[in-house]
Amino acid sequence: MSLLEHAAAPPRAKRSYNRKQAQRTRRRTARIREQSVLHAVDRVLTIKMWALANSLSFSTARRIIAEGNGPKVVRLSERRIGIRESDNRAWQDARVR
Fold this sequence. Notes:
Layout lengths: L2 H5 L11 H20 L5 E2 L1 H7 L4 H10 L6 E4 L2 E5 H11 L2
Antiparallel strand pairs: 1-3, 2-3
Helix pairs in contact: 3-4
């Protein structure tokens, strides 16, 4: 064999990247991003993120907080509240039977 025969590699097949694959990739990265929020040191979670982390619906999460049965709440602004991850962990530990 000559050097030219070794140098010429067969062309690679093109990857087909369709819309469904793109949607799956976006969903997967969104899930990973949401899960990475749960592994941070002591971030402040929004009510929506807190509900997702505890497998609650948004309305149930709001009800639990309104009744005073939820974790400690941090007032972020006049109309926005959040929950520290450390407070969420403490609340979860207190609920273990």
